[in-house]
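Notebook entry, structure prediction.
Reason for the run: the old model in the group folder had no record of what sequence produced it. Starting over properly, with the input documented here first.
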Amino acid sequence: MIYGDGEQRRDFTYVGGVVQANLRAAEANGVAGESFNIASGTSRSVNELARLVAQTLDREIEPVHVDPRPGEIRDSAADIGKPARLLGYTPEAGFEDALRSTAEFFQAFVRAS
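New structure, fully documented this time:
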C-alpha cells in the first residue's frame, strides 16, 4: 500500500550506511554527545521506490494507493553535512545497489526459513 499519491519524497537510507557511520563515530575524537543525521542526503518518491523494488525483484507489482496519512510530511531529505564533516561519512552504496543488496538479503532469509 502507498499512502496518498506516492509522490511524497523520503531520504531512504541503507542499513550499511548506518553501520558505517556508527563505526566512524565510535572511532572519531571529539564527537561524544553529538547527534547526526545519517542518511543518503537525497530523496526519492515512494512511487519511484515501488517501481525500483518491482524492477529489482523482476516482478510485476501494481501499487495500491490509499488515503494519505493525516499530518504526514510531504517531502524530506536529511542534511548529512555534519556527519560528512566530523566523521568523514558519505554513503558508500548507491540507492539501486543498496536496494539490490537488501532484496538479496531478504530472498536468502526466506530461502533459509
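Summary: Residues 95-112 form the longest helix (18 residues).
The old model has been moved to the deprecated folder.
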